[in-house]
Every structure is written in C-alpha cells, then in structure tokens.
Write a structure and sequence with these properties.
Length: 314
C-alpha cells in the first residue's frame, strides 16, 4: 500500500481578503507565497501562506468568500487547524496575540502537546502547538516576517474532524491512505505517521451535519511525491469506496479530490512543481499570479479583486 506523506496544505474560507492578510502575514508572520485566484471561481482570491520557501506541509490557504454566512459546526467537517510553533514559544505567542486583540482560550494539554487555542478574525478555530514529539518537517524562516525567526510558525501540525460514525472514517484512513493510530484521549483518536508532520484528530459528534461558511475549513490536502504516486493512492481511495476526481492540474501541484466516508473533503496533492515554478523565489506572493489558462482573462479578473496592501511595517 502507498501511504500519504502527511499534510500538504489546508484550505479554509475567510471573510474580507485584506483582513485575512493582515492577520496571517501581519500578526502570525507567515509569508504570503502565492497571490492567485480560486481556479473554479476566478473572481475570488486564493491566498497561500507558508514558510519562506513555500514547502509542502507549511501551507495554509484561503478563499475569501465574505458573502457567505458563518458555518454550522457539525459532523462531516474539519473544525480546527493546528499550527506548529517552536518549543517554548507559546508565552511569546500569547502576549503577541493579546496585543493584537485576538480571542484566546487558556493553554491546555492534548496528547502530551502544549496547545494555545484561538480564533482568527473571521472565526476559524486555530491552535498553536508546542509539540511533545519531533518529526521531519521542512522549514525555512522568513527574513521579512514581523515575527523573529526563532518564534515563527513552523508549518501545519494537523486538524480535527468531527464524525457521526468515526469507525468508518478510521477504516478509510488506515486502509486507503495509510494512517495509523498514534493515541487516544478523552474520546478523540489521533491518526498520523511516525516520521512526517500532519495529524488528524477524529472526534465522534452527534447532531446535525456541518456546513461550510466564513471561518470554516474547506478541505485537507495530503502529500504525495509525484503523479505516479498520486495515481496509486487514487486507486486505493477508489478501492475503499471513495469517489475521486480525475487529476486536476493546479499548476503549482496536481490534485485529486474526494470525500472521506463521513463527508470531509480531502485532496491528494503532489509536492511539485512548487510555488517558484512561475515566480522568483525571492518575490513570492508580491503580485497576482494566474495559471496559464487564465492569463488571457487577467484584466477582467483584476477588476473583480480588491487591492491588497502589505500589512508589514516598511
């Protein structure tokens, strides 16, 4: 069986794009590595935040659909995104976030990790994690960040998903994608890998099915090396009863989408070509970049998008 290699990226739904940029680049200090558009809705930005190099596994992305209502939390959706920070840095982060008016919850322990839960300006549930265990993680500090290199967000740690029938989802995770159970605590089971970053916490949840809205996770994307690897995992998904799309070229990576049995949207994404395929690595995210098939519509697309201002001090 071919397993996935941890998280590639997580995509969420935001409110106004400038407010999203102000928080993730200006407060969390992540680098905007790609300023593009939703390829299925080109009148909407697709903003990608990551480490300085845009490594797979460090990438949190957003569709600013500010016209949507808030989400309805419930089963069949991812309900929290966790970001890894440097050991011993949560006190720094608590002070910084309070200074910027961020809604914080008390620090807590989860699976041995020290965790600071919070919400972003549009209600997305986040958690900064000082992890108890170390795994392989590519990370390059960003010299242009307002956060010191030693304190910067290291990348995606994981996500929590709510499931009406966790057993069915767990069977799918372990048989189609190669996850293994890492721990079980207070009714939540953690799945992931021993050697790469990216966990998923599975929690049983009765009640209504969840629905997307501003401040919710849209999908979770899992890493594969290349297209051949991707097709092998796609075959496993289909064999396990999933209904996967054909391979879709996103230009910076190639994607396959499907819903796991409980309804959470998943993606399998290749590591390459990467965000430097169409921009100088020193200037990632500084201007609007379109995939080749949208290039002829640039003028129309630019008219539909709000102007964004770098929130960092000059």
């Amino acid at each position: 069986m071919q397993r996935v290699n941890g998280l590639h990226h997580i995509t969420a739904i935001a409110g106004p794009a400038q407010e999203n940029l102000d928080f993730y680049a200006g407060v969390l200090g992540m680098r905007l590595v790609k300023r593009s558009v939703n390829q299925d809705d080109p009148g909407t930005y697709h903003l990608f935040y990551a480490d300085a190099a845009g490594h797979p596994g460090t990438d949190l992305t957003f569709f600013p659909w500010s016209h949507l209502a808030p989400p309805r939390l419930g089963h069949g959706m991812a309900t929290e995104v966790s970001l890894e920070v440097a050991p011993g840095s949560l006190e720094y982060w608590g002070e910084r976030l309070e200074k910027h008016g961020t809604a914080l919850q008390p620090v807590e322990q989860r699976f041995g990790d020290t965790v600071l839960p919070l919400a972003d300006p549009h209600g997305l549930k986040l958690a900064l994690v000082d992890p108890a265990r170390g795994v392989s993680r590519p990370f390059t500090a960003w010299d242009g960040s307002p956060v010191p290199a030693a304190r910067q967000v290291r990348g995606l740690y994981g996500a929590q998903i709510w499931e009406r029938d966790p057993a069915v989802t767990v069977t799918f995770l372990t048989t189609a994608l190669g996850f293994r159970e890492l721990a079980n605590e207070n009714g939540t089971a953690r799945y992931g890998f021993d050697d790469v970053a990216g966990v998923v916490d599975v929690r049983a949840m009765a009640g209504p099915r969840g629905a997307w809205g501003v401040g919710s996770v849209h999908h979770l994307a899992w890493r594969v090396d290349d297209e051949a690897y991707q097709l092998a995992v796609r075959s496993q998904v289909e064999a396990a009863g999933g209904h996967a799309t054909d391979v879709i070229d996103r230009f910076w990576f190639k994607s396959v989408y499907f819903k796991e049995p409980g309804g959470v949207l998943f993606e399998i994404a290749t590591d390459g070509p990467g965000f430097a395929a169409d921009e100088d690595a020193a200037h990632l995210g500084e201007s609007l970049v379109l995939p080749p098939w949208l290039a002829s519509h640039r003028a129309e697309i630019e008219r539909a998008l709000p102007v964004l201002t770098d929130p960092r001090p000059t």
